[in-house]
Amino acid sequence: MPLILRSLRPMPAPTAQQVLHNVFGYPAFRGRQQEVVEHVAGGGDALVLMPTGGGKSLCYQIPALLRRGVGIVVSPLIALMQDQVDALKQLGVKAAFLNSSLEPADAREVQGRLVRGDLDILYVAPERLLKPNFLATLEQAQDGAGLALFAIDEAHCVSQWGHDFRPEYRELTVLHERFPDVPRIALTATADAPTRREIVERLGLEQAEQFVASFDRPNIRYRVTQKANARRQLLAFLETEHAGDAGIVYCLSRKKVEDTAEWLREQGRDALPYHAGLPAAVREANQRRFLREEGVVMVATVAFGMGIDKPNVRFVAHMDLPKSMEGYYQETGRAGRDGLPADAWMAYGLGDVIAMRQLLDSTDAPEERKRLERHKLDALLGYCESTACRHQTILRYFGEDDHPGHCGQCDNCLQPVDTWDATEAARMALSCVYRTGQRFGVGHVVDVLLGKSTVQVERFQHQQLSTYGIGQALTQSQWSSVFRQLVAGGFLTVDMEAFGGLRLTEAARPVLRGEQAVWLRRDAEQPKVRKTREERKARPEGAGDDPLWLALKAKRLELAREQGVPPYVIFHDSTLLEILNHRPQTLDELGEVSGVGQAKLTRYGDAFLKVLEDVANGVGG
């Protein structure tokens, strides 16, 4: 009798650590993940700010599995929902999504599973969630199997000042009003202090605990290079460091996206365009190829990216200046989500500054918004011209002041910038702008300084000016650098109403009076980056032509194609790399590899052990 009673006792509920290891295959939580999971699993509300790749999804997925009922995840992007659900199904989690891509019959079937409690996690578009009939369905689910939590992903979409503003997000306070006992967790990877305050206010999260992780992405190497021939510079970067890698190249205009993608294809790269002007079917097909194939380069405007869950993006390149530090951080954050080394590379010049300011000034936004956007652009210009550690500069912008610098993962730390006393050159430049009437662009002002006899110089008789020819000690490219940095430093501004003419600011006065020194960075050719043996071992491309690496990737691709999912849904590159480096011989040993949970071990363990055995025996390698 005691034995029978003992066998009928309910099994103890799993802990967060057990779910992390058994379901997701990870040995330990990272950063503040465990704090968030335990707080939400205990019924508390939370606002979570974590960098892209920091593991935000686990912060709501694990509490949803620990609590009674179905976890409801509000997500603004169809592609992200599909990826997340595919990945969860691989882990044995009962997951589904509801959005406009489903046929009515399929949507009804999903809603039926929700009411019956036959789901662990359901992803819902905000537009669908706010419909009265769906809110009524949620009430049915609450009365039955229960609702575990509401997770509001990409919470910065609530902010009117953000570039991803979604008005539906402001109505999500209805969740707290109608389901006050269900915990809510709002998550975002990008939110400065004003946006954070707006999230709290708009979503009614005043009582929520805030978990702010470090915004540092130590695995990303940041580099900014001055534009010379941007296409050739990009190609050299790709050929030297990312041959065969997947990545994203951002351009400002749709035409430049298409031209750059075509040019890269001509150079032998598998490149695809993506922008809002392409037909929806083309965008969808290109995005699908990028997600499901190896080594595809997506050339895109900022219309592409939010919610892209591809972990093995090895580089993000900017051919044009982004709009803000927030945009730059979010876009570069799409590289290296798997935690392996990745690159953020940007080519930048004065033309970018002029184009971006022209774009800002041409909008119909209220003047308050324009001032804010100019301030954000100025912060990004300061970052571009900074001689300090770039990781440190980014973190200070987001309010983190404790990074020590010397990161070893940016151009300024790897190749310390040479600076020079440019006080006299700055005075010449500012004086020439003043004497030419503060109405000409940089090209003409440099011609005057160099003493060139051009049609425009003669037309305006600028050869008569005292500044004519006084700058011949510097080359044209050196003067271009001086003007670019004077604009970035706030000594000059670009007057869009005067067709890009340069104008002096108040900051120029003490320089012209000889009261302030000016030190500028000396532009130099970017050296080729040589990777150490340790770095090569840590990078997927460092595996090179290793027969086992190629065989592991081939098996992953084969399994992914059989199921119609992206390869990284089977295993991340980081998991394959660990298999390559440790070469497990048994299922138990394979189960200790990070990213191999119980469901995946059961499903794929034998297949990957067979690959290891075959290559070891020289079969098929």
From TrEMBL:
Family matches, as PANTHER family: ATP-DEPENDENT DNA HELICASE Q1, DNA HELICASE RECQ FAMILY MEMBER
Catalyzed chemical reaction(s): Couples ATP hydrolysis with the unwinding of duplex DNA by translocating in the 3'-5' direction
Location of the Helicase ATP-binding domain: 37-209
Transmembrane portions of the chain: none
Co-factor requirement: Mg(2+)
Domain Helicase C-terminal: 230-378
Keywords, comma-separated and alphabetical: ATP-binding, DNA damage, DNA recombination, DNA repair, DNA-binding, Helicase, Hydrolase, Isomerase, Metal-binding, Nucleotide-binding, Zinc
Protein name per Swiss-Prot or TrEMBL: DNA helicase RecQ
Protein EC: 5.6.2.4
Listed Pfam families: DEAD, Helicase_C, HRDC, RecQ_Zn_bind, RQC
Family label: Belongs to the helicase family. RecQ subfamily.
One GO term describing the cellular component: replisome
Domain HRDC: 542-621
GO biological process entries: DNA recombination; DNA repair; DNA replication; SOS response
Molecular function via GO: 3'-5' DNA helicase activity; ATP binding; DNA binding; four-way junction helicase activity; hydrolase activity; metal ion binding
InterPro entries: DEAD/DEAH_box_helicase_dom (IPR011545), DNA_helicase_ATP-dep_RecQ (IPR004589), DNA_helicase_ATP-dep_RecQ_bac (IPR006293), Helicase_ATP-bd (IPR014001), Helicase_C-like (IPR001650), HRDC_dom (IPR002121), RecQ_Zn-bd (IPR032284), RQC_domain (IPR018982)
Top-level taxon in the UniProt lineage: Bacteria
Enzyme class: isomerase
